[in-house]
Amino acid sequence: MRCVTELRILDLTKEYRGGRRAVDSFSLTLRPGVLGLLGANGAGKSSLMRILATVTRPTSGRVLWEGEDVARRPGPLRRAVGYLPQDFGVYPQLTAREFLAYLAAAKGMRRRAARARIEELLDLVNLSGAGGQRLGAMSGGMRQRVGIAQALLNDPALLIVDEPTVGLDPEERLRFGSLLSGLGADRIVVLSTHIVPDVAATADRIAVMGGGRLLHHGSPEELLRTAEGAVWELTVEAGQLALLRSRFLLGGTTRTPQGVRVRVLSGQRPAPEAQPVAPRLDDAYLLLTAPATAERVAAW
């Protein structure tokens, strides 16, 4: 059993040229389990992930791994981290085994230990029968599973995966989520994404990012509670949809024989015929991150 690990992020800020803050005074403590890091594109998730993976340095603030400042002693975290970046690149002419062997050698692993570890990981990501297949001939989902395997070569205590399911079909996304859930049993897994269902199926903790800041952190149930009493449904004619959208934040629409069934996110009943419904995680996420359009008018 792996010892309990802890990663502390303290008032972290990352600025780029022109003064743009990608990460702004971000603080969070992580322990074993799966953290779903939710945020729209541009929210600062990838910048934060690169800092945690020691690929880049913060402008200010600190990252503590097992109580030690990573800026002063990056070695322990670098040895403990596995990283699957959003722009994970592969050598298309190499087979999965060749690619993993190349990376194992780059990490300084002994050849015999690397061979055993590669076979173990190919089995873990359900690619045992495809280890001899060239990466260029694999599907996007298979290549992402090779990406997870390379991130796990050093049996990391901290696994960081940045937007791993973009472009994957629903079946591959479910398989990927199941794999990450299992890996979170005895290590810290950070899953960065803007796809709410992926987090709902995988994470035991959720952090919502917006404008580089931490907007919310808690369990999925705690995030759901932030939307209680603020989700409504009503049916309108198709011609009324544009006006409704201009006045309220909409969580989704469904065409029905009676008209368009609309999910409205608002702190007040948007129309007399609107009925309250139970919130979903994507409702709570939208309420936290979208502009406050729902309160700009008094009534529909």
Layout: helices, strands, pairs:
Elements lengths: L6 E9 L5 E10 L2 E6 L6 H8 L7 E6 L2 E2 L5 H6 E4 L11 H11 L4 H14 L15 H12 L6 E5 L7 H14 L4 E6 L2 H7 L2 E6 L2 E6 L1 H6 L5 E6 L4 H7 L1 E8 L2 E7 L9 E2 L4 H9 L11
Parallel strand pairs: 3-8, 3-9, 6-7, 7-8
Antiparallel strand pairs: 1-2, 1-4, 4-5, 9-10, 11-13, 11-14, 12-13
What's the pLDDT, averaged over the residues? 90
Give me the CATH superfamily of the largest domain.
Answer: P-loop containing nucleotide triphosphate hydrolases
In percent, how much strand structure appears in the residues?
Answer: 25-35%
Measured as a percent range, the helix fraction is: 25-40%
Question: Total domains, how many?
Answer: 2
The shape, in one word, is globular
At CATH's second level, what is the architecture of the largest domain?
3-Layer(aba) Sandwich
Strand order of the largest sheet: 6-7-8-3-9-10
Distance between the termini: 57 Å
What low-confidence regions span 5 or more consecutive residues with pLDDT below 50? 293-300
Summed up, the helix count is 10
**Which CATH class of the largest domain is shown?**
Alpha Beta
Structural class given helices, strands, pairing? alpha/beta
How many beta-strand elements? 14
Largest pleated sheet: 6 strands, mixed
* Helix-strand string: EEEHEEHEHHHEHEHEEHEHEEEH
Q: What is Rg?
A: 22 Å
As for the CATH topology of the largest domain, it is Rossmann fold
